[in-house]
Amino acid sequence: MWLSRYAALRVACGAVPEYAGWAPDKAAWYLVVLTLEEGEAVPFLARLNDVLML
Question: Which of 35, 44, 40 has the alpha carbon at shortest distance from 54?
C-alpha cells in the first residue's frame, strides 16, 4: 500500500505518471516480506534482546 502512495506522491511532485507507476513494481521486486516469526527473530538474531515487538 505504501508503494502506491509513493507513486502518487511522485506524480504530485511532477514525475511522469507512467514512470512513477513503474516505481512500486520495481520496489516490490526487491521487497522481502517476512512472516511474523521471521520478523520477531530478527532482533533476537541481531542480539537486540531488549527490543519490544508491538
Answer: 40
Q: Note whether 7 and 21 are within 8 A (CB).
A: yes
Q: Find where cell 533476537 sits.
A: 44
Distance, CA of 54 to CA of 50 (rounded, Å): 13
How far is it, in rounded angstroms, from Cα 26 to Cα 13? 19
pTM comes to 0.42
Rounded to whole angstroms, the Cα distance separating 51 from 54 reads: 10
Grid cell digits, residue 7: 507513486
- Tens-digit pLDDT profile for residues 1-14: 667 788 888 889 99
